[in-house]
């Protein structure tokens, strides 16, 4: 995994929608599953949400915890 990508997941806020303003790594898994079924948005945000979906799906959230303190 790319460290910059993981840092973006703990620093970037959701720009719109129900969870506007929430840090991406704090988005609930059902919301990511909904996006997976509906289709992720284009661009960097979509790539970050898809990556976060894969992280949560595979139980890898522990990779993000140390980065939250940086």
TrEMBL record:
InterPro entries for this protein: QSregVF_b (IPR024530)
The protein's name in its UniProt record: DUF3820 family protein
Organism listed in the record: Plebeiibacterium sediminum
């Amino acid at each position: 995994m790319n460290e910059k990508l993981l840092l973006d997941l703990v620093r970037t806020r959701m720009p719109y929608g129900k969870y506007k303003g929430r840090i991406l790594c704090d988005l609930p898994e059902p919301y990511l599953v909904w996006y997976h079924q509906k289709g992720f948005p284009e661009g960097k945000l979509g790539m970050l949400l898809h990556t976060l979906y894969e992280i949560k799906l595979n139980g890898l959230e522990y990779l993000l915890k140390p980065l939250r303190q940086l």
